[in-house]
Amino acid sequence: MQSSPPRVKFTPAGCAVLFYALISAVNAGAADYPAKPVRIIVPTIAGAGLDTLTRLLAQKLTEKSGKAFVVDNRAGAGGAIGMELGARAAPDGYTLVMFTLTHLAMSTLPGKQNVDIVKDFAPVTWVSSSPYLLNVHPSVPAKSVAELVALAKAKPNAINFGSTGAGGTQHLAGVILSNLSGAKFFHVPYKGGAQVVNDLLGGQIQMSFTVYPVTKPHLEAGRIRALAVTTAKRSPALPNLPAIAESVPNYEINTWYGIIAPARTPPPVLDWLHREVSAILQQPAIKQALAVDATDIMTASRDEFGKLLAREVVKWREIIRQTGVSTE
After folding, report:
1. DSSP conformation class of 11
2. Disulfide engineering: 121 pairs with which of 5, 216, 252, 260, CB 3.0-4.6 Å?
3. How far is residue 145 CA from its own chain's centroid?
4. Is the bond leading into 43 cis (omega within 30 degrees of zero)?
5. Is the dihedral of CA 294, 140, 194, 179 positive or negative?
6. Is residue 18 part of a domain?
């Protein structure tokens, strides 16, 4: 008769020893972090505003740690390709994702992305927030939001407005403007922000919503005209630009950047990343450069950022439901 294998008896003391051994192992790995290059996925093309800020942070993190932080641009499908790649990466701290509110909003579209921002990712840090600018081609006779709305009402769908994809915040900025004002604009989706700007410059589209750094040189050269900012109030960096809400009550939309990592990434690694990125953002030269570009640095704990993500998912899922926006 074969004897039964000996039964392992776990005492409270034994369980405590095992628990602290596991914690020590995790902390030991975090103490050596980063021990090799870290990839930061950016779900946009190179040269976009998100890419530029990511490269700046990557450079500073490389200088701080002595290990390379490498930007990996994975554009396409409205950011879905890069977001899904990040969600499926090993949760070891060596793959991060720098993303925008647009990518979060698009993830709430049915069938648009196979990721859940809250379940598939761990929050690292909120980075920055900035308004969109409502820009028009110089051929558009409107010199104010009120005039633009009147023009679009008189000629419904005669004004084409471009965005980086159906369901993104640039698209929703136009949809919300249309819903609140009664004006009708014709939406033209693109695969990237550079294409939107190029066609706005060329007059193929007459309107767009972009962050200030993207169109700044064209605005200064008079190749594009900005009518307003999309935040509830005027931006301190652009005091001469009115808020859309001054002409269209209750209008408000802005965008932000943040860093996330695959779910189950060790908390000590996430804490290190949060601490170091936050310190970089507080450097005077960084703060000044972002302020000039109408970008506000956002400060929040990892827990606060996680709660923000959860709230934003609920908010934008409802906005998309109410507006009837689809991937088409």
Report:
1. P
2. 260
3. 26
4. no
5. positive
6. no
pTM assigned to the model? 0.83
Residue 269 confidence (pLDDT) above 60: yes
Structure tokens at 57: 């942070």
CA distance 310 to 305: 9
Report the 3 state secondary structure along 38-105: EEEEECCCCCCHHHHHHHHHHHHHHHHHCCCEEEEECCCHHHHHHHHHHHCCCCCCCEEEEEEHHHHH
Q: What are phi and psi of 71, to 5 degrees?
A: -85, 130
| Each residue's pLDDT tens digit, 214-234 | 899 999 999 999 999 999 999
Could you tell me if residue 23 is inside a domain?
no
Burial 75-86 (b: 16+ CB within 10 A, else e): bebbbbebbbbb
Dist. CA 313–CA 307, nearest whole Å: 10
- What CATH number is given to the structural domain containing 279? 3.40.190.150
